[in-house]
Fold this sequence. Notes:
- By secondary structure, the protein is an alpha+beta fold.
- The chain folds into three domains: 2-53 and 375-536, Up-down Bundle (Multidrug efflux transporter AcrB transmembrane fold), CATH 1.20.1640.10; 65-144, 2-Layer Sandwich (Gyrase A, domain 2); 201-373, Gyrase A, domain 2 (2-Layer Sandwich).
- It contains 16 helices and 20 strands.
- The longest helix is centred in the last third of the chain and has 54 residues, at 376-429.
- The chain is elongated.
Amino acid sequence: MKKVSGRSWLLVLVMTVSVVCVTPSYQPLYQALPGWAKAVLPNKGITLGLDLQGGIHMVMEVDEDRAVEIAVDRSVNSLQDLLVDKKIPAESVKRTGPQHITVQFQNADLKGQIQKLIDDFPTFVETDSSGSANSLVWELRETETKRIKDSAINQALETIRNRIDQFGVAEPVVQRQGLKQIVVQLPGVKEPKRAKDLIKETALLEFKMLDEDSQIKLELPASIPKDKEAEVVKQFEGKVPEGDQILFERAFEKDTGREYRIPYLVKKRVMLTGDVLSDARVSIGQFNDPYVSITFDSKGGQEFERITGDNVKKRMAVVLDNTIYSAPVIQERITGGRAQITGTFSTQEANDLAIVLRAGALPAPLKIVQDLTVGPSLGQDSIEKGVKATLFAGAMVVIFMIVYYRLSGVIADFALVLNLVCLMGALSALTATLTLPGIAGIVLTIGMGVDSNVLIFERIREELRSGKAVRPAIDGGYDKALLTIIDSHVTTLITGVALFLFGTGPIKGFAVTLCLGIAINLFTALVGTKVIFDLLYHRQKVETLSI
């Protein structure tokens, strides 16, 4: 009886821990607990997945070729600065093709000096494809191209995670799929459009100077209607100087709220980029207009001070993803490493802008390959159907076990209830995300929960038919069914582990509930029901067994 008592206390302990762990999943009950209990327990239990509470499922693809082009453009800017520092009069430095830089110069004697500069750019190799004595062509190495593409995926993953964390989505899924795709799942998002805009925005912040000396600037219209940008660009095609481009500022009429665009002639050369930012926060101006206050790191602060000092009384455009947010006149050298981004945006838009700037720019634009929005009504319907399926399956199993095995069937039903309680407690303790396939795993666990007891009961029946007494028959039934039960559970557990390791989100949800259910079922079948039998039939002279 001492051995039975030990197993009984173990059974009580497991039930108690399971019930306690389930508590955070029912917030009204959890909030009623004393403070010391809340400090011990996790602050949240089982969370519902995307298919149950609604949300966003997106598959995005990183434009790897554009990431390479951006990296080459930055090398072009660095080479231009180096040529100025070395006082080498090059005629032009520009990217020609996705991976090439072409340097043109008037004096052929400069070729040797420029060739030596390639030592400062080890990721490039010189090619002889120019066919001219007054030009040089550098090509990005193939190994560097592969590194940039792979790095673009990893950086995009990290940037998206940072943005989602600041957006405040619970239990998001952000993972790589294939070579260049990223899967994003955001359960429970109340503003799907805002979340999508926040995720896919490249947030490439650039500071560029306006070209105020060109005659084309005077020919540009003062303002144009929204969505007419392409027409203006086409109208001035061929007229814009080679080193310039036309960009547009978004603006609104104060009286009517009508949105329009202001065109600017901007120099293509990037003076400073957002990768030197250390912080971005929303502030309120003197007229209660929100603006974004940005802080540069030490390197960026020094560079910004130099740029503003060299361009006093000139206009600098603050460009985000090829859209001008403001184009103020530099009144004096700006020290302290701080600047402001002003514009006609709301407080929410300013907050979103600060989020993407703090999280960093995406290394390349993202293209949405698949976009699904699951409504909460669908999720509620799935939950109700899942609960009905679970209750129906449980009721049918309970009735069958009672009818076929009588009192022993009641004991098996107790093990089934214990299995479900322990399973919910384990899911809650792990703060697992419950999905629709996860509910299917729970329903399957109900069937498997009595499968082991069926094997044990049939073995007990065989022992009784052979003439053994009740107590030896019970012990013999458990001993002979032990290896068969372990074998069936281990093989199913191996399958569940494989599904978890190699499956995607929904498959993983099914695998988690299946594996936990199998492990718990071993305990409830071999320990839980055995304890009940031992307590009911501990006397040696019991002559009948209701089975």
